[in-house]
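In the current project phase, we have settled on a layout for protein records. A sample record is reproduced below.
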Amino acid sequence: MKTLVIERAAGEVENTDFFNSLPEDVLGSNSETTVKGSQFKQPLIEFSGACAGCGETPYVKLITQLFGDRMMIANATGCSSIWGGTFPTIPYCKNKDGHGPTWANSLFEDNAEYGFGMRLAVKANRYQLKNSVQLLLDTGTDAKLTELLNIALDNWDSTDKEAKENSKNIQDILPEVLEKADNRTVNHIRKIIELKSYFINKSVWAFGGDGWAYDIGYGGLDHVMATGRNMNILVLDTEVYSNTGGQASKATPLGSVAKFAESGKNTVKKDMGMMLMTYGYVYIASISMGANKNQALKAIREAEAYNGPSIIMAYAPCINHGFNMAYTQKEEKKAVDSGYWLLYRYNPDLEKEGKNPLILDSKEPTIPVTDFLKGERRYTSLERTFPEKVKNFRSRFTDYAKKRYELYSSMADK
C-alpha cells in the first residue's frame, strides 16, 4: 500500500483517466438476456461496504446491470440500507449519460408503501407528459420534434435501446424548439421539458430484508401486492433480522437458533410465496443465484417485465449463519440441492395461455437436508446448548422439507 500522493506522482492519475475513458456495455455478440451477456453490462452499484461474502449484494448488482439506468429504489431500513446508503457515500452510481438508480430509504415498516408512492408518482408524471405531448402535437410544432414525439407515443411502453435513443433525441432538441416557441406552444414545451425524463418508464423496486418483508412490514407489502399495480419487490432473504443482531422472525426456519429463539425456533418459516399465490395475479419467484444463475436471471427479467405486482425472494446467506463466507455461492447451491430452499416461478401470464402458472425449477434433492443443517452454526450451536432437542428438530425439518417439495411438485404437475 502506498499513499495517494506517491501514486499520483507515479502517473496513476493518467491511468485512471484512461480506464474511465473506456466504453461500457460492450456486449459483442452476447445478449444481456444470458448470464454471460448480462455481466458485460456496467453495474450501477459498486464498493458497497457489505460484509465480505454477503449474499445480498450480487442480486442487487445484477438488477442494476439490467435496469439501473431507469430504476427507482425504495429501500427498507436494514442491512441493504446500511451498505446501500451510508452517508456521505453510497454505492449506487451513474453511467456516462448521467443515468443511474434513484435510491431512498424511509422506515423499516413502511417500505412497500413508500415504493408504491413512487410508482403512483411515476404514473401521474407520465400521464401529464403524454397529455402535454398530445396537446403540443395538436397545436403544431417543429417538424423534427413532431416526428420524434410521434415515435415516442407509438412506443410509449417500450424501454428498449431504440426508445431510449429517441428519448435522448427529444431532450436534445427541446431547448432549441423552446427558443422559437410562440404563445400557443410555449407552456406545453415547458411542461415536456420539466417531465422529459419520463419518456422512458421507470423500473420501480422495493428492496428489503426478510425481517421487513415477512414480519414487521408484511401488512404493507401484502397491501401493495393486492393492488395489482406494476410494482417490483426484492426480498433479500437471510432468514434472520441480520442488521439488528439476529433476532427470530417469521422468516426464521424451524430449529434455527436466533435471539428470542435460543433453544431453536419451534415453528416453520412462513411460506410467503404460497400465501401470495392465492391472489392469482402476483408474479412470484424464489431464487438462489449460486444454485441456478440462469433461473435467477430469468426470474428477475420476468418479474420486471410483468405488468403487475411482482415479488422475488432471493436466498442470501449471511455472516450470522456461521459458515465460511468465502463460499456463499456454494452454500446457496447446497441449500437447493438439499431441498432446504426451493426454486420456482409463478407467472400469472402463463395461465392466460392455458398453462400452469407455477414452474418448479428445483429438482428432487440429491443430498439429505440434514447435511445442510450440519454445515451452519445457526443450527449446530444447539448441539452445545440444548443437545436433547437436536434430533427432534432435524427429524421434523427432514419431514417438512420432503412434504414441501411434494406439495410444490404436485402443484406444478411434475
